[in-house]
Amino acid sequence: MIVKHINQVIHTHDDIDTETWNSRRLLLQKDGMGFSMNDTIIKAGTETLIWYQNHVEAVYCIEGEGEIEVIGGETYPLYPGTLYALDGHEKHFLRAKTELRTVCVFNPPLMGGEVHDENGTYPLLTAQTADPK
């Protein structure tokens, strides 16, 4: 059984802070669940290009307002209670009108230190390729 409080993650190597988002990695590949789960804050007034070529992701908004724009497709509003699932590796922009707080689930699971590259992609890391923290 895994029992964890977010305060055990904040200000550790599993708390990844970038210019547009801050992701607290609660469950990772090392936890053996077959998925990873993050508590992620999208910073107010930001836009992030994202393209998960190597992962599928489900996102549940619990606080704030924003939108997701699928490149070449529709734009959807985000507010508490909204779920979106990127089951087709959709390239998209994530925009936060106010600070957005989300719960994100990834498959395959994240190793922990991933950040988006210039294409908006997380690399597919394994225990052999991950940068040890």
TrEMBL record:
Its EC number is 4.2.1.108. Pathway: Amine and polyamine biosynthesis; ectoine biosynthesis; L-ectoine from L-aspartate 4-semialdehyde: step 3/3. Keywords: Lyase. The keyword Lyase applies. One of its GO terms (molecular function) is ectoine synthase activity. GO terms for biological process: ectoine biosynthetic process. It catalyses: (2S)-4-acetamido-2-aminobutanoate = L-ectoine + H2O. It comes from the Bacteria. InterPro entries: Ectoine_synth, RmlC-like_jellyroll, RmlC_Cupin_sf. Belongs to the ectoine synthase family. Catalyzes the circularization of gamma-N-acetyl-alpha,gamma-diaminobutyric acid (ADABA) to ectoine (1,4,5,6-tetrahydro-2-methyl-4-pyrimidine carboxylic acid), which is an excellent osmoprotectant. NCBIfam families: PRK13290.1. This is L-ectoine synthase. The gene is ectC.
